[in-house]
Specification:
single chain; 429 residues; alpha+beta; Immunoglobulin-like; 5-stranded mixed β-sheet; elongated
Amino acid sequence: MGKKIFFVIAFLVLSVLFIKPVMAADIDIDYNAELDKVCKPSHCIIPIPTLIDPNEKIIKIDQDFYLTGLTWNNTKIDIYVDDEYQGPATVIDDKESDTANFYYLIENNSLLEGVHEWKVIAWAETGRKRSYVSTENNFTMENYFLAPVLDRITKDIDNNNWIVGSAENNSMINIYVDNVYQGQVRTDGNFNYNIGHLSPGWHTFYATAQQVDTGKTSKRSNILSEQVFETQSIIEDLEQSEEEEIDQIDELEEEIIIDPVIEPIEEADIEDNISSISEERDEENDIIVQVEEGRDSVNVSEIEDYDVEVGVISHEESQDQLVVDNQEGEISELNNQEGEIEEQITVTEELQAATPSNRETEMILEELSVMERQEKNRQVGLWLLIVLIVIVIVSTSLSGKKAKLKSSKESEKKDDDFDSHQGDLFNRE
């Protein structure tokens, strides 16, 4: 009877230490069914997690975003969006407190425009106990407003640059030059925006739109580019100087009209000044014509005599052609670099496609952890079984020796009784 009780106890110990952990690791949970499942208080003992973000937030329809919240240490979090299981969240335990952070990345999502809700369930690490379903947080997926279209860059008679384009009615257009915000203009269809004079070199232009009524924003428009040459800058400076000279003449003429009682000497001086300024203007016009037609280089000393600050002498046609050839070479080199960058991006995408995702890596690590636990439990069970066999062998050996000893004593007792009986008979005789 004692042996039977011993074997039963040993079997139960092995079951607890070896069989039960393996069964717990292999539990298959129907995650979607857990939302509608009535959870018993004895089973739902894990505290309910707290949802943080997003909550009443507007998210663009193709934008990646995180679901975040708080839970207890040593728990697992299952994510649900619109009552559909999404996957397990990443939980980061805080060793200094009982509270852990969790997050889940929604990427390449197919959520439609509109309001969506998300909630979670917390599980113990063994997967046998869970929490009640958390409260719901809402977020809104919003589509982009239609992006504007830039048509061209034009100049007016004052050499100001204008961006011309089109957009949806009742929208505000934000203008960017070389990735720097310049200003905005409201449009009901077509629009144009004055960006003024540009420095020599390449410049890029794009715009974004915002719907006035709803506040929806658009993606970036198409990009326009334009190159400003050095000769254009010279012409603009000369024309600006000419305008200043004209303003000075107008001011002098106004002074003559306002103060007609002037001494003859002063009037002669004023007329000389006007004549001198007119001659300077005529000579400046000649310089402008020479720059535009690509004639002989301009004498810098002549420009300095008329207080016109010009740092570059006009180029000949051969020099202009050389500049154009150099720029075409630079553009070709940029195109080659762009091709190399696209090839690198393609190789990077292929490597990323061949690299396991974070979710796959977590699943592999979890499987390895389960296999390690199973192997460890099997080793413990094997050692316990060996100990049990040794105990049984020792117990059996001791029992056999005890039986032999008892039998030997009984035999000796019988011999003693027989001898005693023989002695009694002898005495009687």
